[in-house]
Amino acid sequence: MMLFTLMRSPYQIDLDILLQALTAEDALLLLQDGVTAAVEKSRFLPRLKACGAQLYVLQEDVAARGLVAQISTNFAVIDYNGFVTLTIKHQQQVAW
């Protein structure tokens, strides 16, 4: 059970490598510029939905980028308290 955090734009990383590392027991939290991958019309969304991991976005970063109405319903929108809860639940973490 691992928490993966994606802080960079999905255009700046090799998303396929990240997705290969994820399992159904893992969680993926998108924050900072990573939240753009959760936009409903994102070309990355189909692969993220198919990865099997629990998907989250950080509410404050979504709002800061003006994307509130565009985030896919496949992602749970969490605040900083939710972020802390995820880090407690997933003691092993990998940042991207």
TrEMBL record:
Cellular component aspect of the GO annotation: sulfurtransferase complex
One Pfam family this sequence matches: DsrH
Biological process according to GO: tRNA wobble position uridine thiolation
Annotated compartments: Cytoplasm
Top-level taxonomic group: Bacteria
Keyword set includes Cytoplasm: yes
Keyword list, A-Z: Cytoplasm, tRNA processing
The keyword Magnesium appears for this protein: no
Alphabetized InterPro entries for the sequence: DsrEFH-like, Sulphur_relay_TusB, Sulphur_relay_TusB/DsrH
Function noted in UniProt: Part of a sulfur-relay system required for 2-thiolation of 5-methylaminomethyl-2-thiouridine (mnm(5)s(2)U) at tRNA wobble positions.
Oligomer status and interactors: Heterohexamer, formed by a dimer of trimers. The hexameric TusBCD complex contains 2 copies each of TusB, TusC and TusD. The TusBCD complex interacts with TusE.
Family of the protein in this entry: Belongs to the DsrH/TusB family.
Protein name per Swiss-Prot or TrEMBL: Protein TusB
